[in-house]
Amino acid sequence: MSEQPISSIAKRFGIKASRIKKIRKGIYRVVTPGGKIFSLKRMPKQLARLQWTDRVLRRVQNSGPLLAWRNPQMPEGRRLYVISQKGEPYVLTPWISGREPSPRSLSDMRACGVALAHFHLAGHSGLRGKFAYSRIGSWHSTLRYRQRNLQKKITKAIRNGFSPPINRFVKQHRSEILHYSNQAGALLRSSGYRSYSRNPRQTGVLSHGDGGPSNFILNEKGTYLIDFETLHVDLRAYDLFRVIYNSCKDYNWNFEIAKAILTGYRKVAKLSKTDYELIQVWLRFPYTTYLVLSPFERFPLTTSWLQWALASERKIGSFLQKLDNYAAKHN
Question: What are the domain boundaries of the chain?
Answer without folding.
Answer: 3-44+67-94, 106-330
